[in-house]
Specification:
four-stranded parallel sheet, 3 domains, elongated, Rossmann fold, alpha/beta, 339 residues
Length: 339
């Protein structure tokens, strides 16, 4: 049986194929009765619009690009990236857009060529590097709308979605101070990342406002994975065995810190309190469940897609941006400081 065409739908509906096209493309200037008749014929015949032809008529590919760094040796090494991908794909699909996922290491020739050779309607870039990511000049040259996630200070020509990283760190450290902790270590990450800088600012601000001078011995470079938290805590215990609390840069690093503490016979939270950051899904099921800050990665990524599609379809001004609040999540990994 031949595949039904738009002309078959028009013939069976008693209208022009242009009227059918307007219904298929969601245009408004068709009467309710005519629209209903056409939709019934489409359902009866099993007609499906040709995506490529529709895209050519609209002058769009109906495809977005999500660009993410492939750090730590493999893709999706950190569960927060699951939320980013899900937020982008779910929201794009609701609008009828496909998603092209590209991993980036640096702005090499291959990456620059892909920005021009792989035609898309817009780009979502997850990159918190400061100064601005090396890809930005090539994204601007490509011309399609681009929204950067977790970095509002990239370029005034780009949109952005960000979160209040400082506030989350401030609230975590204040919580520890309220529990009587004064020797609070920070397991940090790459300080060229704006998200890391925000956490560091919040950490130091909470200490200083409580009259506690930040101690260099309690600041350690770690990383974003569990093994990084374990190794950094090993070094911390060599430096300062009197530490009573650890603020880890993210939840995976916090899990590694707990592994190391237990190996040394330290109880969490009775001997040392530990907090994370992100609220990835394993955090609530950890032992003990992890006190952390929830970053709404899914919602942020969904908002980035909405901004891009709004710009592509001319439904809103661009560039613009949106900041999301964070949420303090109290669980069982923190307790009053030991006497």
């Amino acid at each position: 049986m031949p595949t039904p065409t738009i002309k078959d739908v028009a013939r069976a509906s008693g209208v022009s194929y242009k009227t059918v096209s307007r219904v298929v493309n969601g245009e408004e200037d068709v009467s309710v009765a005519t629209r209903q008749r056409i939709q019934e014929v489409i359902a009866t015949l099993g007609y499906r619009p040709h995506h490529g032809a529709r895209s050519m008529r609209r002058g769009r590919t109906e495809t977005l690009r999500l660009m993410m760094h492939g750090r730590n040796g493999r893709f999706l090494a950190n569960p927060f990236q699951d939320d980013v991908v899900s937020g982008v794909v779910d929201t794009a699909a609701r609008h009828g857009y496909a998603v092209l996922l590209e991993l980036i290491e640096e702005a090499g020739d291959a990456t620059r060529h892909s920005l021009h050779d792989r035609r898309v309607d817009g780009t979502i870039l997850l990159d918190s590097h400061l100064p601005r990511p090396r890809l930005v000049p090539h994204l601007l040259q490509a011309g399609a709308p681009c929204v950067v996630v977790a970095n509002r200070e990239v370029d005034p020509a780009l949109g952005w979605v960000d979160a209040d990283f400082e506030d989350g760190a401030d609230r975590l450290v204040r919580h520890l101070i309220d529990l009587g902790h004064r020797r609070i270590a920070l397991l940090s990450d790459d300080t060229t990342l704006r998200s890391t800088q925000g956490r560091l600012v919040g950490y130091e601000r909470a200490l200083l406002e409580a009259g506690i001078q930040p101690d260099p011995d309690l600041f350690l470079m770690a990383g974003q994975l569990r093994e990084h938290g374990d190794a950094a805590t090993e070094e911390l215990l060599r430096r300062r065995s009197d530490v009573t609390a650890i603020f880890a840069i993210n939840d995976l690093t916090a899990f590694g810190a707990i592994d190391c503490l237990r190996r040394h016979g330290c109880r969490v939270p009775e001997d040392v309190s530990v907090t994370g950051y992100d609220d990835i899904y394993p955090a609530r099921y950890a032992s003990p469940p992890l006190t952390t800050v929830r970053l709404p990665w899914y919602e942020m990524s969904a908002a980035a897609v909405e901004l891009v599609i709004g710009a592509v379809e001319g439904k809103q001004s661009f560039p613009n941006g949106r900041e999301f609040p964070v949420e303090f999540v109290l669980r069982g990994s923190t307790a009053p400081a030991r006497r």
